[in-house]
Here is the input.
Amino acid sequence: KAVFNRLLAAFGLGLRLTPLHARGRRNALDLKRVDIEMVLPGLPPSFDGYRILQISDTHLDALPALVDPARRLLAGLEVDLLAVTGDVHGAPPAPIAYSVELLMQALQDVRVRGPRLAVLGNHDPVEMATLLEEKGFDVLVNRSRVLERGGERLRVTGLDDVHNFYTDAARAALENHDGEDHDGECRIALVHSAEMADFADQAGYALYLSGHTHGGQICLPGGRPVITQLTRCRHAAAGLWRQGRMAGYTSAGLGVSDPPVRFNCRGEVTIITLRCAQD
Here is the structure.
């Protein structure tokens, strides 16, 4: 990993000496909104039409200029659930409180009718959980939150980062649901990386939301990632995918890591509308 980071730093330095750097930075600031309808087997009727705003890999301390275009893109949006799938922080020298404050600026014109949930990413130190909780987030570190609507339940399980900080507690959180038998309930997993997709499918989850890969950030024409940063479940590197019976979505992320550029891969915010399966 150290060798890879040195090569990446050298690439970024070389890129700054070319006109491509300015173009890549403009690309990074050109965000898009992705709207998806997801049909989930077993979704309770009370949750039909439930809207989730997924934001991932904001890294706004690495490129603060992203705050304004993100805020404009999100302005006036109304959703039922906000899900932040990790990597609020970006550059290690920056204070993590700065990263959180920039995120809150980007989100300030969004109306969230229900909970604000978050999980930690590989760039987020454990102290990030406290700072997000102070801003009204429920940070799910290997535990579940049961949402209730019209007397019906939807389980959301959030895992600690499994790319750099995997422990058996993550898999246990997917498989053990408060010691209760909830066969048939609809379950959603929020995990920074897609690398637990097979385990989530085996545990009966209907939907898996992740980030981590930035969609590649620097991609070949057509959007094919050059590097995914995944060690498992590489088919789930970007966009919509399936793992067994489970649907999944890997966000391309809002922000960027160094070098702060994008090619053939736009940053995004994602609105996922849940729908019941038709009989």
The helical segments are 2-16, 20-29, 67-74, 96-107, 127-134, 168-175, 197-202. The CA atoms of residues 42 and 186 lie 6 Å apart.
